[in-house]
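Section 3.1 - Work completed
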Amino acid sequence: MKVLKRQFNEHTHFPFELAYRNTKGPKSELPDHFHEWCEIVYIYDGNGTFFINNTFYSMQKGDLFIIPGGTIHHTLPDADKPLTSSAIFFDATIITHDFYQDLFSYMYAFEQGKQLNDYKLALDEQEQYAIEAFFCNIQTEITNQAIGFQSACVHWLHMILLAINRLILKQQKEALPAFEKGPKWIHNIIRYIENHLIEQLTLSGLAREACISPEHFSRVFKQMTGMNVTDYITTKRIIKAKELLLNTDDTVALIAEKSGFYSTPHFYRMFKRYVGKTPSHYRKHS
């Protein structure tokens, strides 16, 4: 089974990458669907659909997306209007966590997005200009690599996060409505999987739930989410297991059960395959 996970160098002393102003059509989109680093995506031009953690969003000029680590996501660029975007990938360890007097957190946007399942900001013209300038500054630093360029990249990342957090607080939006892309059954099935992770989920059973053939179900599900059904379900279970490992004192066996794995050995095998570490090692070192 292919693990659909974007790989970064976990041992680098500078856990930061920038993909600047790339244009992608449907055939050039990479099959990367989740990773441990945080991600910020900004759209310069084009149209498409962004699937992020159970929700479909429309994509157009001026949209900005905040994707926490360990979140399933997949883009569907429009064939007639390919997407041009920039993306920043970074490990949260490079972010300043001093709160000072106002208890401000640069990672607020990611915490809020995960809590509300809301990952999109639509920027006005002035806000677009500011964000584009920040991305341009980072690209200039990476290109020139003058002394201190890595510190400069982190500085501009902090400025982007500050701007994003202020926008979120200014708008005080509760949640962005889901973008109804594709058939209604795909939205219902995604919610069904989320609510029944601990149960036995199979392609044939989900197809029956959606009242369509397994072949059609499999094709459309892969097209919309970027993953086949088995990989999607396993990835969701792994994400849930990681949260339980970090936030509870439950035994590994109990976490395996709560995450929907039918046995502890099977859980160990899948966790090591998808995360690259055993559950115990992940809990101890994260």
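Second construct:
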Amino acid sequence: MIPPIANRFVAGETHGAVVDHARELETRGVRSICNRLGEHYTAPEPAAADRDAYRSLLDAIAAADVGACISVKPSQIGLDVSEDCFRDNFEQIVDHAEESGTFVWLDMEDHSTTDPTLDAYTHHANEYERVGVCVQANLKRTPEDLRRLADYPGKVRLVKGAYDEPGHLAHRGRAQVNDAYRGCLDVMFERFDGGIAVASHDAAMVKHAVDLREEWGTDFEIQMLMGVRNEVQYDLADRYDVWQYVPYGGKWFSYFSRRVMERRENLTFALRALVGR
């Protein structure tokens, strides 16, 4: 069982827990992107197990008729085993999602995974439009990737990027990354007909997207993490299409630790929970 100190950031350990969280979020006008925690499997068996767990989650979402979709990490379903393993497992997940019309996001990991991740996305986007992929604004290649992705009918989620990438491949300073994020949004609103997901808790980035929508007339959605600026998410949902990224599963501790350490307000929350205040 996940302790109270962690359940701000992780929905629970089971399909039932994450579906219950999605149902509660829906009453606040926010929909859920459900991610089963796990990554960097180097053997095919755990990758296959998480593939099957996602298929079961898709069944649970469909049975509950709740506003939710799923998001999958490539290394979780076999990319560290082989690209063929990853592509086969992802295809089985997408095929299962197609039966119920559920959306499937493909997360992005470090720069070494960019090409196989984008290749898998573009392959499926031509056949099943309810797929999306994440790209990272800190990578210097991303504006060109976005120009190519504009030709596909799926969705693209833009994040700032959380991996410590080498300087010749990525923008590293905060101001540089912010400028890169704005530049990527400029490309997306200019070239995309829709399917833009602004995944940021930075109010300035959301404001830039709002301004671009006024200029280009292109709708977008906002995505934020569970447990980070929740009240802001509920407020934004009155005016925009808002989705919350909702982790769940037994591998919750390392994820929770990262969330606590990355923002001062998260650390304050955790400390108060520890002392019962």
